[in-house]
User: Fold these one by one.
Assistant:
Number 1:
Amino acid sequence: MSGGASTTSSPLPEPFAGWFAARGWAPRSHQLEMVEKGRAGRGALLIAPTGGGKTLAGFLPSLIDLTERPRPNTPAGVHTLYISPLKALAVDVERNLLAPIAEMKLPIIAESRTGDTGIARRQRQRVKPPDILLTTPEQLALFCAWEGARRYFEDLKCVIIDEIHAIWPSKRGDLLSLGLARLATFAPHCRRVGLSATVDDPDLIRDWLSPGARDEVDLVRGAPGAAPVVDVLLSEDRVPWAGHTARHAMPEVYDAIRAARTALVFVNTRFQAEFAFQELWRLNEDSLAIALHHGSLAAEQRRKVEAAMARGSLRAVVCTSTLDLGIDWGDVDLVIQLASPKGASRMVQRIGRANHRLDEPSRALFVPANRFEMLECQAAREAIAENAFDQETRRSGALDVLAQHIMGCACSEPFDLVALHAEIAGAGPYKDLSWEDYEAVVDFVATGGYALRVYDRFARIVRGQDGLWRARNAEMILRHRLNIGAIVSPAMLSVRIAAGRRAVPGRKIGEVEEGYLELLETGDTFVFAGAVWRLVAVTGTDVLVTPAPGEDAKMPSWGGSKFALSTFLAQKVRAMMSDAHHWRVLPDDVREWLEIQRDRSIIPGPDEMLLETFPRGQRHFLVCYPFEGRLAHTTLAMLLTRRLERAGVGPLGFVCNDYALAVWSLKPMAGLDFADLFDSDMLGDDLEAWLAESSMMKAAFKACALISGLIDQRSPKDRKSGRQVTFSTDLIYDVLRRHQPDHLLLRCARADAAQGLIDVKRLGLMLERIRGRIRHAELDHLSPFSVSVILEIGRQRAPGEGAGEMILMDAAEDLIAEAVA
Amino acid sequence: MSAAALLAETASQHPLGGLTLTLAGEAVVCRPSGALWVEAAQALIVADLHLEKGSFYAVRGQMLPPYDTAETLRRLAGEVAALRPEIVVFLGDSFHDRGAEARLGPDDCAALSGIACGRRLVWVTGNHDPDAPASLPGDAAETIRVGPLTLVHEPLPGAAPGEIAGHLHPCARVRARGASVRRRCFVTDGARMILPAFGALTGGLNIRDTAYRGLFRPRPLAAVLGAGRVHAVGWASLRDD
């Protein structure tokens, strides 16, 4: 064990010192430091690598305090509130926490409460609070909207936020920070503790966590773990030019699983998970216990896999980001990343899943699915070795989340306008919230925030004669509680086996997001939950399927990863590519590919952008390689298309991946002024005009409308149905845009779209970076680099704006064809 | 050949915008706004305005924008200005609920008066608004005939050719290029037609839904509203939601 004091002079009281000693352990220095912080009543952020006893370090001060406290005369409230981003994690920690409590026979009750907790237990927990309550951000928000919240939490001494690095930079994090601010009002002396994996800039998290200045939260660092051992699979089969499946490498992946005790196989999308699972079982001659875990599987199925994993009865789990976070599976000794990791920080997290309990290095194997990914995997590997991470930026709290929270406060107890503003300013992301914005949000909560003030008499919250604001009636409260949370889940469809000849819905095998099957037609086969199914029909909220064993499933195309390539990793990839000396770490075929690219086209310098033009078929192509991720590329392609239209070259379509984008047109583009074409002024009016109409903006608006409570995701009438949204938010968006373009929700949606969906900021930085540094190669035919993106043509959906009209025109042409046939 | 393909053969783009189709022998223009223009009778027909839908929900605590009536009437005024009809027929469910007329703001009342100026308004009654408007210009009727066409709110199975109705808020999910798009649409088999909802906040019901069963000959045509034009789309390109 690292950094431990000897057991004889242990600063831990009994029975803790004895408990450690009995196991042959010594407490680690950061665990002791956390105990000191607890005794001093200080807030703390603990940064320690996975496997460093982090969770126990978080709980130790509370366990000691609870053990040493005098028996209270009155029943005590909750002493420590532990919040985890994952439902499953709260369950898992309950297990890990209960073990020491039981072994030391501590007089402490610890219980979890999640969305899955039964009604009887919830009610009992309200009447008789446990000493330690383990829960999720959403449950805290529910507590905050409960009329008994103040009394329930008045004895609270400590809030622990686990995996804080994963929560804080999100709307869930915003909601959680507001909940923390509320708790601080109920229990002013409650201290805050954050537990985090290694991050680039701990101060950002301290700012977020601290009720005031960041130095109210002390930084505690664990000793760094052993450096992970990361290999990149150099497949004997050649690395493919394009694609995302890594099918070529499956036999080697299988061998790696066979050689490991237990492996986690991470993939980037659910389709990839299904595909890899299918492929591995095809090869599974030894019938190794290989399981599947992703967000579309039915919850009970996921729980089963988690339980089997915890028992150590699985050899491998193919999973998506659903298993990114810290469920403690000590037996995992290998993490395999299929297709590229996209970001160094996430990858470190994933690698940390291996050897959770040991001070051995974690082992990881990267399996690139194409040649650019080979570069990316190498870059990620080097970043991990250098301990370099993706950078985050400071977060400003979202106003739609604030609206939800304010409604919640009104549901709990009447509030004073000024006092609540002061309370909210104690939430990290809302420290700079202006009074104007705050009032606008309160007005929105009350009457929708419309300039046309016709709804005053229908207000959801009203100001009483005592000057305090409260929810108008019980129905408003009930509706709010049903709709708490900052995760907008897409409407889900149940996948059911079609029973009988009339194909009525039968047994449920899982759930899929609406739109997941968009690319499939009735009669098509697809893989889901590890088996092949034929799509029979979609009726209401049910997808009816029949088993189609042995059939070759149609693989709908997927856009690779939903995560964009991180800026940091992209930079490393560009640097590696431009440095021919660096190429020797790459396998022969990838090196040859770079050499041919150098001979036939250009290898750009690290800050340059390569732009190729060439004819192909009846079309002219422009391919450029910004390496800024699919989102930024899609935005760029939309804007370029508008400009190319104005330039009169007749652009016909475009396609993007994480590395490149290709536009094709009727007329040649080689003679264009590229400096002009890529001028950053495209981010002005063109962007505005495009964004307003874009489906991304409408999606962002929908999320804001749901989170803010403008419309309900669930209504009291149909609590269970999958399709809850009763209004078309697109129609609301259109009406609002015309009649009140500065409405609060449009502001929220614009901010969200610019940040998350179109990556405007990143695009802006890129355009600055390449100014004067565009390297144009005019070619006779496509280049080795361009193959990866050209091969995506036809596999991707028609992209965004204007696509709607194109689809309608095409469909109309089909009818004319039928008419004249 | 499907009903849709037969219709498509004779369909044409109207010079003022919209798709001209033949319905029970009469030329009608499906406008990109969702209104139907019967040139011979100089009649403009709009269905399912659902005025004051926003305020209806606001009363119940869902603060939808209070601009839907203004927006719907703005679009209607645009059609009236472009086509100068002699008669404007509201095909029922013009108001979202019985209390809607009383909630109309003064500006919206004025806009309606402006639309009524110099022409006749006919309010066909619907299930949401079974009573005639109390204080607005125009006449109420359960049905009205325009040439060979019969205008009613709710389509009836087995009705005679020439019926034009609303009520169902038809919408089409159109698929091509490996993607799909959902838009409001007219639906017709050449004998009868259902109009899309004209209201700004009125949603749609997919025309493949069972609610449309028995109303049309097999494989009717969807005249789908696009940007500035109406697209004739055949059944084969349509999908469930």
Note: The CA atoms of residues 75 and 187 of chain B lie 21 Å apart.
Number 2:
Amino acid sequence: MTQVRINIDGHALDVPAGISVAAAIAQSQRPFRRSVSGHMRAPFCGMGICFECRVQIDGIAQQRSCMVSVRDGMQVVTDG
Amino acid sequence: MAKRYDIVIVGAGPAGLAAAEAALAQGARVAWLDAQSAAGGQVWRKDIRYGWPRQAARVITEVVNHPHATWMPQTQVIAAEQNALLLQNEREGWRITYGSLILATGARELLLPFPGWTLPGITGAGGLQALVKQGWPLDGRRVVIAGSGPLLLAAAVTAKRHGAHVLGIYEQASDAAVHGFARKLWRWPGKALQAAVLRSQLAGIPYHCGSIVTRALGEHALERIEIDGPHGTQRIECDQLAIGYGLVPNVELAQMLGCAMKQEGAHPCVDVDTSQRTSVTNIYAAGELCGIGGRDCAWLEGRIAGLVAAGADIDASLLRQQRHARTFAAALREHFKLDPYIHDLAQPDTLICRCEDVPLQALKDYDDARSAKLATRCGMGACQGRICGTALAELGLFPRSGQRPPLFPARLASLGELASSSETEGSFS
């Protein structure tokens, strides 16, 4: 499977092309985000409904990581 | 100027696909959009390792490559006007207009609160399936599948196929109810075959009926769960819990368009006639949003809607098959009816609104969604009440309030595309 290189919170990571950003974050074992009262959260619905998996992708905040596929050179910033 | 299409189809699952195929065969110019990056919907979601199911792959390729079809992936409807939709993708917003609109927005999972349900490591059952198909790592992870309905079997198969150690499937319906359902399956030979195939793929994975996950525990992520079953309470150490209580129709767009609704249990679905027409002229609905009916039903209804919208006749056998498929859904509902105990799992301090961290105890003095929202922020977050509002309706606390634009969080630049922005002023949550 072709690999692409992305960057999550400053760490370079090689992942299979075509996987979701959510899957890439899970593979990197990075946290996703904290809730408004500071609890750890991670993907929940898996299909773009719940917004629990949102992260910043290439400078755009609040992107649902389960809905976006990785692209070479992508910069991801989590909120963990 | 906004581009015009004969038929616009929202949703690329079985219903949307069937509608597109049927309408294209009649010569219509079709625009076809979905929030996901690949067509197939949830039930035919493309698997990064295994691709689409074979039957889906053929029709998806055909429709995507059809010269009269415009495929718009990762596109969502933000707002609607007379015969026009405001769309948004990752980069931009734009308007399109249509002669007819076919809604095939499908369903989402019924996700219900219980103590610990917000811990990382807990997903929906179909939710885990969706994540795994797009590369979510499960190799060697201890996974428990729970909740209700045949989707649990499919989720377990996908998890196993991707290397998970599936510890068990815990179905809330009683042993008698599940066996009663199995005995009726001969009436739908396709379903019986599907069930037999699933069972054979799940050899070695225990299937427990009458079992309900009552609590999840862990420091920063899931470590163990508690299950109440016919033999008392047990604790299971696990890394991942996939738990879903069936499906609920995605009706938000139809509601915003003013389509008449009817109730199916605690949740609204779109009211359609036998030609899949909604109460609004030139708007059709097909599949799960007209009531949970499953993949075969969605396909047949999509086909009917596509033919009618393109001005073609529908033959009686197609309508007969659709009615038969709907009876399967009725049997499913009857046998996998939720145990009322599930409605009482949330404790006073259990978070109901996951976006705004609102616990159950903060909601007890309100009797409608709108006043609860204004006072507690419940339902005011990014999911716009899709999770908590649906859960509260299911729990019998209060029904969801109506939908206002934007349907999903929208960028200001996209909203600038709206012809009459005054109508939406002040409505951004």
Note: Chain B is about 30% helix and 25% strand.
Number 3:
Amino acid sequence: MELLGIANYLVLFLTIAGVYALLTLGLNVQWGYTGILNIGVAAFFAVGAYTSALLTAPATAQPPGPGLPVAVGMLAAMPVAGILALGIGLITLNLRSDYLAIASIGIAEIVRLFLKNEEWLTNGVRGMAGIPRPFAGVDIAGWSAGGALYLALTIAVIGVVFAALQILYRAPWGRALRAIRDREVAAEAMGKNVLWFRLQSFVLGSAVMGLAGAVHVHYAGFIGPEAIDPLFATFIVWVMLIAGGSGSNLGAIVGALAIWAVWSVTELLGQIPEEPITGFGALRVFLIGLLLQVILLLRPQGIVPEPRE
Amino acid sequence: MNSALSVRSISKSFGGLRAVRECSLEIAEGAVTGLIGPNGAGKTTLFNIICGLFRPDSGNVHLRGRDVTGQPAHRLFHRGVVRTFQIPHEFAGMTVLENLMLVPAGQSGENVFRAWFQRPRVRREEHAIVKRAHEVLDVLQLGRLSGELAGNLSGGQKKLLELGRAMMSEARVVLLDEPAAGVNRTLMKTLNAAIRRLNRECNYTFCIVEHDMNFVRRMCNPVVVMAEGATLVQGTMDEIMADQRVLDAYLGGRRD
């Protein structure tokens, strides 16, 4: 029984870490490859999650939906997040990176307010419940294996995304993006259409973030506007990427696992005192920040540095 | 003689500063044209305008008879104009080889879907590009540094790398902004030889901004002198040196 509990916890831990790994991979395409400073990760995550939720919610859900297959929802989450990125990118990507960062914060906030207030579509602050959870209730020899199966699906999705991004990193496409990151003016002088490449990188990264949202929503079965909390959906993803090694896809995954492990362990620690310390949430954020500082000082290139061809 | 590039009464102001005023210039096909002048004469600004980095307030730029004024730099590159930078603009986080491999136009692997679904084709192209990059590195005697990060090169080596990038392109009009500044004698010889060879054997047209007069004398004919945002004189180095107006511009002579 005890062992089963640990196994179940591990499945839960790895699934959420997997969602974060997808978010971090998406951010790596934008920041790690191209140097696009996107502080609105949460917005693309949320748009992906809501897209898949709206498409797959059954007639019995709150609010009711068309009940399309989960695969359709997940596949649709990517282009919808990508189209949002395209619209935003066309307006903001010719801004210098620091201004783009400010714009992206604003846009994430607009998306959050939209999802919170457009009740006809999103059920507002109550959020959307009853989203289908694939494999839920699957029973193997008395053990409810739904979680494990969903974890396997998550890992498969990460595998495909990782392979696809890895190919692009090594291809001339990735080389052009890295050149733009290093020296935009020179890349332009070498005939690369900088704006077009930045737009592609922004859209592709955002599509992966949207996919992360879809994977999350079919695990949780619920999505509400609080899921777009910048702390969980943006800040921590940045920490994961920088700790893991920005520019490296493997680093993005390792960073997501490592930081989520630290985050989860500190949560367990928080339950040790008889009366939970009320300020513990803030302390955890502090600890994560401290860890980031230590990594930046001791290993600025991250746990898994960017590969050199 | 045919003009590769012709600049026709270009003006450009930054706020109250008139960096380039009514400047006209012809760069002859197949020549190595030197562009000299005191600091602040507007040489680099003119370069930036020709290359599409800045849009001029008035006037225009023609490339082989075609108006290319204000076209973005990446499009001019595809029309055959490539430039280097006064301060080396290497891609510091990429290897020397990658710096060169980036350059060739029309790489199918720059398209996301081709990179995913036409991998053999991309690999074939990469193979050819690597080969060409190694040839360029050999000419520039940078072969042993091919795996080094470009950011770790010396100032002079970075200048060579910039020229190498120009050699990787299909461009036949090359604008060099102070290629010799900060380059030691040994590297300078390599640089000179490379420029000569490109000019004579491959028929590249050069326009070179440079302060090193020995370099200009050795490499450039004709030489154009710019002062206060406009072209002053044009001729061989000896004619230029004998011209009172040039001395005035450099040393601050009397104004009429």
Note: The interface with chain A takes residues 51, 53, 72-74, 77-78, 82-83, 85, 89-95, 97-99, 101-103, 105, 107-112, 115-116, 119, 122, 125-126, 147, 149, 165, 169 of chain B (CB under 8 Å).
